[in-house]
Structures
1.
Amino acid sequence: MKAAVAIALLLAPLCAAGDLHGKITCKGVRDSSDAVVYVDSIPGKTFAPPAEHKVMDQKNLVFAPKVLPVLVGTTVDFHNSDAVLHNVFSPDACCDKFNLGTWPQGQSKSQKFDKVCNATILCKVHPEMEAFILAVPTPYFAVTKADGGFTIPGVPDGSVTVKVWHPKCKPTQKLMTVAGATEADFTIQK
């Protein structure tokens, strides 16, 4: 029994995790919402996509949410909550330039995001509609609030690359060491 406790105590630092939190400042835009902050990789780890699908709705002639990060391999259901026909397509090669066609209120169509990708999501029926799906390699990601604040829970301790993407600003990245609760602030520009 004592040996098992001693081994557990020795292994605890290898398994420790904390919250990666901070603030993204987006210069040249109205506010700092909709930035995606994510850990690019965890050495020696791969992650299975969730069985549960994520949802991007079409409601009041907008995509909701406007920015949706997902783990690579995740299937996204596109739901139509409007009383008009909607379409979903992406011109981006990283998601195989898909077009799901057009469908009425109350129905959904699905698309799997198999590769790391920054996909622009559009509607041929309503060209003013635009959203983004980021397929990222780890489950450690967050979308910023209007003030730029974010928290990514449970990030394993160690050296990682943290990346930031925003629909209107230039992406950036930083190599950093996560040790328990760790702060990561970024400033990005339009």
2.
Amino acid sequence: MEEMSLPTRKIRYMSKKIDRAILKLSGEVFGDEVDPIKFTNYESVAKEILKIVEETKIELAVVIGGGNIFRGREAESDVDNTEADAMGMLATVINGIGLREALVRNGAKDTRLMTAFDLRAFAEPYIRLKARHHLDEKRLVIIAGGLGIPNFSTDSAVAQYADELRCNIIFKASTVDGVYDSDPWKNHKAIRYNSVTYQEAIVKELGIMDTTAFAMCKRSGIPIFVFNISDLDKLPQIIKGDYSFGTLIHK
């Protein structure tokens, strides 16, 4: 894999202060090829999140996926896609409960789990102003259930919530270390971008997030930093202006 440097774009953004961020976590981080759910994975992710918040003092929301359990798009073609998406949204709630439990057990007593649909026995319903209040009070907020409607991915959800919660940046944890000009799993000569604009990501169909999410971020102007989930512990470096271990997508 090769790297394409576009440093002038990156430097322009570095001067902006990051005090509120939203982190997109794919469900795959909570399982492996054998076990879809591993409580040790919730534990390790929770500890990294707590370290990040402690070191940087940022206000942090987390949008959580459910791909380790079920993805709506993986349903067979004759299965109703609305019902399949409903199953996928419920899968994200399972991960949300698991991560909240690990965060609380490791010291984040006032962590809040919010869902896009009503599951009051397990989580608070997501209300924009209430979620902002939790962040203002320095509480960790986990949002599960996507947008609560079928046909929209958790990528679209994180773009929407980032805007509603007035976040400075989206952290997109991925299985690769940034955005490439082609699939790095299939092409070992794929080039990694240091920086790319929303429009370039849409036109070139770079694929790290869906087109709807890119369009939403382009409208709101909220930048996206794509990095490898194994580098989660490096997020404090971004707060200090180091974007070298991923790809920044912005204006």
